Amino acid sequence: MDMSQPIGVTPLDTHTDGPVGQPIDRVDGPLKVTGRAPYAYESREMANPAYGFVVTATIAKGRIRDIDTAAAERMPGVVHVLTHRNVPSQGEKKEQVGPLLTGTEIEHRGQPVALVVAESFEEARAAAAAVRVAYDEQKGAYILADALGAAKKPEKAKTPPDSSLGDVEAGLASAPVKIDARYTTPVQSHAMMEPHATIAAWEGDHVTLITANQMPNRGQDALASVLKVPKDNVRLISRFVGGGFGGKLQPQADAILAALASKNLNGRPVKVALTRQQVFTSTTRRSGTVQRVRLGADRDGTLIAIAHESWSDTAPGDNFFETSANVTRSLYAAPNRLTAHRLANLNLLPASSMRAPGEAVGMLAFECAMDELAEALALDPIALRIRNEPAQDPEKHVPFSTRQLVPCLTEGARRFGWDKRNPKPASVRDGQWMVGTGVAAAARLNPLQPAKARVRLDPDGTLTARMAMTDIGTGTYTILSQIAAEMLGVKVSEVRMILGDTADPMSSGSGGSFGAASSGSALYMACEALRGQLLAKTDLEPANAVFADNRITSGNRSAALRDLIGPGLEAEGEIKPGENEKKFSQYSYGAHFAEVGVDADTGEIRLRRMLGVFTGGRILNPKTARSQAIGGMVFGVGAALMEAVEVDPRYGTFVNHDLAEYHVPVHADLPEIDAVFLPELDDKANPLKSKGLGELGICGAGAAVANAVYNATGIRIRDYPLTLDKILEGFGAKETGPRRA
Prior knowledge:
By secondary structure, this protein is an alpha+beta fold. It is 26% helix and 25% strand. Strands 4-6-2-13-10-11-12 form a seven-stranded mixed β-sheet, with helices on both faces. It has a five-stranded mixed β-sheet with strand order 1-25-19-20-21. A hairpin with a 2-residue loop joins strand 10 and strand 11. Helix 10 (359-377) packs parallel to helix 18, helix 13 runs parallel beside helix 14 (515-536) and helix 17 crosses helix 18. The relative contact order is 0.14.
């Protein structure tokens, strides 16, 4: 199906008491809690694997002068040491996936320089420590703020890096109230639960990889380029993935090196897992950003001009940039507009997508700037946002498919008790705690990707669906099982969902908030085709047919599915993005509300309560949707208060490269967080009329927390995260006398 027209009435609209929309438990839950859902490294499908351990560079820029593997090769159990001297021939870089060990040049600390393969993991690790590498070290560039002058306009990604409308400089000059603020966000790491891991084996010129990958078809294509084989000769299997957040969008060193080593070992399976430290230093990251936001408004709060400029960085030779200002292009109305992105190349590992790339860090800046403007105007922050609600997309000049940002703000304000907020900063106390509340909007692009699915209904009534989709912990197995069960009128327990194998029909994979909509729509179309086959075996009226309770009913007549299946029926379905993406501006929306306490002596910040109100089209499963929204909100709290990779400016080292010192929120940091969804259907989005939710929860969440901290203390911190040393510095700058109540 080509999504070039709005979707009319569907079976999901007419049969409203089926599995879709029900808060059922995860169908893969029992497998996971009983240990029967193996991650890649735990798989036993490939017999007699050897174990690889990656040796990484200990300098950030320079060349390998010499590499001595003799001692490692003599150690017990070692079967192979892979270096630039004996690595198989490799092809071209594709989708940020490039050849490894191809030369002596070092471009970032943590770059793989060798792989030691042994009969056990322990033997491989011990031998890896015996590999001796001598370097000629060179001076590198490691800090984004020092490289702004060398930053360049990046190549166009899916959207142009810059946009402009009207005359921003004239608009700002004429505005009676204006804000000009600089915000910075740090390098961040995906820090997913499951480290990257792969088992790879060759059979002739075909290679199979059981691997932790979010997008198997994309990875298949990229690996085929690197390994110099046809795409169909590469098979990726990713049945269960223990989190990714974008860090597993592309195959990493574990997959590439396992495949190369297996090739040198005549096809023997090679198993490689990255250590937690290597996940930080040898995969991908979120770039740090420097952002300048300028806003100009009339005294009533009507925006005259918006300018949002962002600088980010990536590794030498790479072109990925953080699209921090993209969401600004559609969020609020203003006649004069400018967004711009610039990219610096630093000797750090490549930057890539991390949960809500662009919006996550862009809204940390922009939604705080809106709060600063509201303060300058003496206007309620919600009123400012509502006053600048656009009638259509302000830069594309097309209508929104759906847009309920204002209802999210107003309903959230009602539920949160916003009317009780004291707008005067540093005016509310609870003992030694300074208390404040903040708000921010949430918006995340709602894309659709090509996907296919195959379904089969067997004589015993089992419905089997296959596609190369993945479940990275978000509940994909569950919502797809609900869609299939709803469409064919069978129980969820009668659906067998087989995911994560490129031998099955291609799918979008998990990422970009398009996974459920894309894979779910393909499955919907396959089930629709199967419904047609079943109806063709009856004389029932198709227009009024209802599939439920393993029967087809139309009017006062019905037929049992088992009487129609015969030896089995099979069908395929496909979804493709269409003109609707150009005709309409498609986003999911929400609003965040946060209350914080700040200790008046120590500067410690504690989140006291938080609410998110969202719209995401049809909610396929309220339980998994709420889980995703709350998870995103927690992600945003971490970005606001603690999450940062500390880069040593002397050596390009990530100082905190493990979960002991890279801080993310834990249960003790968080009160009960609530997320609610307003009713919505989007018939321009896809046949499910749903929208993406996986990343919406993080968008703007950190800004709501930061705005609450300002309301509590009167201290505006524009350098994330808001650690207590920065609060204490603000206390010192204010010198307002005793702080204890």
